[in-house]
Give the backbone structure.
Amino acid sequence: MNNKSNNIDTKKFIDTFENLSRIERHNQTVMGIKKSEARVLLCVEFLHEEKKCKVNISEISKSLSITPPSTTEFVKNLINKGYLEKNIDQKDKRFIEITLTDEGKEIVKGLKEYFDSLFSGIIERLGSEQSKLLIELLDIVNIYFDEWYSNLK
């Protein structure tokens, strides 16, 4: 599997991405919740604290690029676990704000510490310059994959 024009072995790309995927598959939970649920909790906190906006299903869906039905299911599960709550806007009863409970805030705090530790280790291993380069390269790869997969449709 060689790319003749650049003399690059595409098998090395396949192996590397497969290894990353395998690591991800074997580590599906963090702090007792699914990583997908962790993303929703972190998103709610980010939208509320950083963007200073009222958070609803639509905002979460847009921010995470997932469908509203999937977002609704995640939110429902996180409400049942006691990490999120729904609040109906008294001025506009159609608007349902999603907020973190105190327990949800504690989980988010732990998640931030977990990810900070994880990625600090990578930065320590690679150094500042290589870490910045890795981020730039991964951004380029993400854009490429988005374009490539959108052309398949």
